[in-house]
Write a structure and sequence with these properties.
Length: 182
Amino acid sequence: MRAEWIDVLRIRGGKVTRLVTYADRDRALADLGLEAQAVSEESTTPDLEEAVRHAFEALNRRDIDAALSLWAPDVVWELPPLGLGVLEGPLIGHEAIRKFSEDLTASFQEFDFEYENFHDLGSGVTFGVVVQRARPHGSDGFLESRVGVVAIWRDARIARATSYQDVDQARAAAERLAEERG
């Protein structure tokens, strides 16, 4: 007999602040409000999803070196335009991603990353939704953003990623890319 448990963690400041264990996957998704986004368990590659989970845990600990292990050394990461002149062009390579991550997290008192879901679409293409939650220095309020991320994988590492402010646009782009590469 095989038992499967689903743990839902809330991580803040690099620490687990809440843990709920479920015996029923559908109930866990429903409690998170994700039942409409549920997909067949066979469509997710456990090794890639596990790697993503570890990378987010590392980011929340501010262990950028560990988080970078998910990315190929020559990675290209396209970020959505923020309209603030904050970033010009894509981030290329580990050092660019390291500097961006350090600058971003240092800009806030608290900054946490959480992935809502992760889907392996085949042909080396994945789609995920990432929630970033931050509290500015000297404030009690939080800012939250939700982005879609499309990634192309090479040798179990992200070779190229594109983030979208519109999650539906990201999902459509990922599906087109997987079909093109298929």
